[in-house]
Amino acid sequence: MHIVAVGGSDAGISAALRARELDPSAEVTVVVADAYPNFSICGIPYYISGEVGHWSNLAHRTHADLEDTGMRLRLDTLATGIDVDGRRLALRSSDGAETTLDYDELVIGTGALPIRPPIAGLDGLGAADGVHVLHSMGDTFALERSLERLQPSTALIVGAGYVGLEMAEGLSARGIAVTQVEMLPEVLPTVDPSLGALVHAELDRHGVTVHTGSTVTRVGRGAAGLQVDGTGPDGEPLAWDVDLVLVVVGVRPDTDLLVAAGARTGPRGAVVVDETMATGLPHVWAAGDCVVTHHRQLGVTYLPLGTTAHKQGRVAGENALGGRTRFTGSLGTQVVKVFDLVAARTGLREHEAVAAGFAPVSSTATPDDHKAYYPGAQPITIRITGDRDTGVLLGAQLVGPRGTETAKRVDTYATALFHGMTVDGFSELDLSYTPPLGSPWDATQMATQAWVREHLLPAQVLSPR
């Protein structure tokens, strides 16, 4: 049995590791387009900030670690075509040489590509000009070279999603004055604007100049650096002279290889797979940011996340060996640290719940992370969304200072969502307590109890269960 995985990031490596774990006799080859297999792309902002001392520390596993599992790595090798009937993969190495590789089962984990928005002048500029995207180790090294060469004092970031916010912090840590431009009404648009506003205030507090409801319309080279033009919320013209521009407005699935082989696409152009990660092409599986996401509440959607890619890759690797496991679905659980604040979410927001056929209502509470009489207690803002008719928990959003365990508290909600709990039933969870770390009712439970008080009548609470 020869399993070939294409892609050296989360999905491809997870598939290869699972296959080797279950069947050490299986031959497993991983085809990697660059020289950096199993690197943490999520850790790039912390390398740029200087918190991660050397780029090699971003490797989940070293080259040697991976080969010690028995897998073979084909680095700096691009997969250019799939002969589905012949079970053969066409390859091109970095020197241009073209070869083929036979397989019994194929797992595709080509991931996603950064979106380049329609900004005038953007396509004619690149790293040599101080204009960057940030998605790969190659992008990281290019940005690092610009930082060393230009010694920038100012930078403009297009986009205020997860990576944009992390990079605002990372560049600020290097003493660079950061301007951030977001086209939507508030930063971190994956949470409700009222919670995004808390993140916005944190950016303000750390000297980041934020323009929301604004767009960048043109980027060009000037005598002293880069000239950036934009439009404000009311259409007023905006202009900035900066040394560096970073464009991080999201990703799109990298599907060319699979589509050329005949795979179908779905939401956002991602390749359609079932819960076993089968593509519908014989002996071809796919996982990660190039494929659709099976969401436990929304059904089939597209939600590229590293955690999801790891799970999907594991499923694909097992099933390529003949297993029968299934990806049980995502809840979109996410978290980001922005300076000294942590924002997290899981499940659905109201507009998403409405689209999924629920009758959502929400409430917001600000319980302390631990007992107020113990020094250092800090409030966490928690927004709970539940179904008005059934009382089922639909989603949670949290923003709290670093140190309030906001990231782990969102995981408690994610666990409850996974098992279909009601908002009221959340109070029955037996959660830990000691005054320096929590309260007899955890902050998560205080927030769900606030939802119950606001949205459930006493008769509904007291009705037989």
TrEMBL record:
Its cofactor is FAD. GO terms for molecular function: oxidoreductase activity. Keywords: FAD, Flavoprotein, Oxidoreductase, Redox-active center. It comes from the Bacteria. Residues 2-313 form the FAD/NAD(P)-binding domain. Pfam families: Pyr_redox_2, Pyr_redox_dim. Residues 335-438 form the Pyridine nucleotide-disulphide oxidoreductase dimerisation domain. Gene3D superfamilies: FAD/NAD(P)-binding domain (3.50.50.60). InterPro entries: FAD-bd_OxRdtase (IPR050260), FAD/NAD-bd_sf (IPR036188), FAD/NAD-binding_dom (IPR023753), FAD/NAD-linked_Rdtase_dimer_sf (IPR016156), Pyr_nucl-diS_OxRdtase_dimer (IPR004099). PANTHER family: NAD(P)H SULFUR OXIDOREDUCTASE (COA-DEPENDENT), PYRIDINE NUCLEOTIDE-DISULFIDE OXIDOREDUCTASE DOMAIN-CONTAINING. Belongs to the class-III pyridine nucleotide-disulfide oxidoreductase family. This is CoA-disulfide reductase. It comes from Jiangella aurantiaca. The lineage of its organism: Bacteria, Bacillati, Actinomycetota, Actinomycetes, Jiangellales.
